[in-house]
Write a structure and sequence with these properties.
Blueprint: E1 4-10, H1 25-43, E2 48-53, E3 60-66, H2 69-78, H3 87-99, E4 107-114, H4 122-134, E5 137-144, H5 147-161, E6 169-173, H6 180-185, H7 193-202, H8 204-207, H9 213-216, H10 229-273
Parallel strand pairs: 1-2, 1-4, 4-5, 5-6
Antiparallel strand pairs: 2-3
Length: 274
């Protein structure tokens, strides 16, 4: 299981009053924060999550890194919508919070909600990306609400920070009938890679050989077992039971064959004595 310290930065700018995401851009973020916290702490009990805002006069840390959701919830209640977002300042403050983590073995990750136009230029963002990459800090962007204005800048940022290992992610969520947290929950941001590898191994016999169909999905029409963890686990247990049954049948068949051979040998010896 991945051991991480994660700082979540919410966008609390005036754009968050917009209701194009149910029930509003701001509330949609708060609902997603809970999902992120649950997924992170459930994947590893030593994972910690912190929370901060990036709009207004300055970025504000609402909760230090913690395993207690009550602290996150208290921070959410103290936040308010104001001003314009400052992504560079927000990420820099998040880096300071991660530097002060108690467990230095934790990998460092920042999850940033972007729901308002990014005012910083590409050059400023690129410089920040270089620093983050140098310090082994991964960044996940949840890009929603202002995709047309922000996507190209975020893609340029990701091209610098991502070294090809896919440990940082850019997820763009358009307006639609689905809730923001439902869409984010299906993405690589919240996938437990160790769990996915385990699930893929469990489906290996039915999903095809490595490099084949199994690499594109997990069998049984499930592209991502995290979309329905309970069903995925039920399928995996069923497969394990089936494999156990086959092993028992094979062992019983081998035992029967050995007994038959022993009887046959005994009969041959008796005929030779006669």
């Amino acid at each position: 299981m991945v051991l991480e310290a994660t700082m979540v930065i919410i966008d609390n700018s005036e754009y968050m009053r917009n209701g194009d995401y149910t029930p509003s851009r701001y509330q949609a973020q708060l609902d997603t924060v809970e999902i992120i916290f649950r997924r992170k702490t459930n994947s590893n009990p030593e994972n910690t999550v912190g929370l901060m805002t990036m709009a207004g006069e300055s970025s504000v840390v609402l909760s230090n890194l913690t395993t207690n959701y009550g602290q996150i919830l208290s921070g959410l209640h103290s936040s308010k919508i104001e001003g314009q977002s400052n992504i560079v300042d927000g990420i820099q403050v998040a880096c300071l919070a991660l530097r002060n983590r108690q467990n230095k073995n934790q990998k460092q990750r920042i999850v940033v909600f972007i729901g308002s136009p990014i005012k910083e230029g590409v050059k400023e963002l690129s410089s920040l990306a270089v620093k983050l990459k140098k310090n082994n800090i991964f960044v996940d962007f949840i890009n929603f609400g202002e995709q047309q204005a922000n996507t190209s800048k975020l893609e340029e940022f990701m091209s610098i920070i991502d070294s090809g290992d896919n440990l940082s992610h850019l997820v763009t969520v358009p307006q639609g009938p689905y809730l923001l947290y439902e869409q984010v929950d299906k993405t690589a941001i919240l996938r437990d890679q160790d769990q996915l590898e385990s699930m893929q191994d469990g489906f290996g016999e039915f999903g095809g050989a490595p490099g084949g169909a199994a690499d594109a999905g997990f069998g049984f029409g499930m592209d991502d077992p995290n979309m329905d963890p309970e069903l995925a686990m039920a399928i995996r247990l069923s497969l394990e039971e089936e494999n156990t049954r086959k092993e028992k049948e094979a062992a019983a068949a081998a035992s029967t064959k050995e007994e038959g051979q022993e009887k046959s040998t005994g009969g041959d010896e008796k005929m030779q004595e006669d």
